[in-house]
Structures are given as C-alpha cells and as structure tokens.
Amino acid sequence: MADSDGITFTEDGFVATKENAWFRIHVSNVENSQLMLSFDNLIRCDSAGNNIGDFYVSCSASMKTAAANNHKNNQTIPGIADYDFNLGYYESYTGGIKIKLDRPGYYSYDKLYVSAMGADNYDKYASERVDSSYRVSEYDDSHLEGTVKASEDGYLFLSLPNYKNWRVYVDGEE
Question: Are residues 7 and 16 in contact, defined by beta-carbon separation less than 8 angstroms?
C-alpha cells in the first residue's frame, strides 16, 4: 500500500473511518498490458462480521476509473472474482491504483490482486480458444441456443444479463 486517507488496515481487511475513504496501491513496470484490479468476496461488515449491506467502490489509475456497487448481482463471475475493475490498456505504467469506498465500515475480503494481461498474450490465448467458442444456432428476444466444444472443463461467459426466469441447459440437463 502506498498511502491512504481514512483507512486503517487490519489483519483480515480494513476499516473505512469516513465517507469516501481511500487507499492507493503502487504498481510498477506494466508494459503493453490491460491492467485489472480484482477483489474476491469483498463485503462491508459490522463488528461481528455480519454483512451489513450496500456500498460503492471505485478504482482508478492514470487513464481510467472503474466503479461498482454491491446491491445487485456480483460484477463478474461468482466464485472467481466478485469485483473486477478494468483500468485500461497501458503501453507503459508505473504509478498508483486508488481504491475509494463511499461508506464507513469494516470491509473484509478473501483476496485483492492486481493483474496485467500482456497484449501479446491476449492474441495468443484468443487464437488458441477459437475452436472452443460458443456457436449460436438460434436466438430471439426470449431464447438463445448454441453449442460449444471444449477439451476440458472451463467457463462459458455470455455478456447477457441473467434474468430470474431464464433456464440454462447443458447437454439437455437443466
């Protein structure tokens, strides 16, 4: 951690002592990469560790700010990262990532990490995965059907909202 305002760090989280408290993480030598900051299981708690609800968190680096709130579904894929903040592409970056929380409280999390995906790697991995992409065979405003062939277990990401009445079937089983 580089610096902070209104944040006290604990063994398993941190306490925001005021509204819009923040802390900054220093990163160095990011080259030709997409910069991401992720939290696993970030929650705002009372002194007994019970989840007490809504908050808004934002992250910013020199070129971009990303933000999320927790009163809706997780921001990404549950069980992988609850909050993923895409901070943009950088040819070269050394500096801070500022994390700001709108509400005071105790915040716990399982993991906080910064990653940089090199643009060269992205192209490589995308071309390796082209044969296992989802092929849409039918769709309308209430239905999406397609197939995917994969050589091993993995995740299928669809950039569509998950509505309560939707059903997902894999190999004909719900």
Answer: yes
Q: What is the pTM of this model?
A: 0.68
- Residues 28-70: pLDDT tens digits? 999 999 898 988 888 898 877 788 878 888 889 887 877 776 6
Question: Please, are residues 19 and 101 in contact by the beta-carbon 8 Å criterion?
Answer: no
Nearest to 37 by CA among 79, 91, 92, 100: 100
Distance (Å, whole) CA 133 – CA 131: 6
DSSP states along the chain: --EEESEEEETTEEEE-STTEEEEEEEEEEEEEEEEEEEES-EEE-TTS-B----EEEEE-SS-EEEEESSSS-SS-TTT-SEEEEEEEEEEEEEEEEEEESS-EEEE-SEEEEEEEEHHHHHHHHHHHGGG--EEEEEETTEEEEE---SS-------S---TT----BTTB-
In 3D space, the residue among 40, 60, 36, 16 whose CA is nearest the CA of residue 117 turns out to be 36
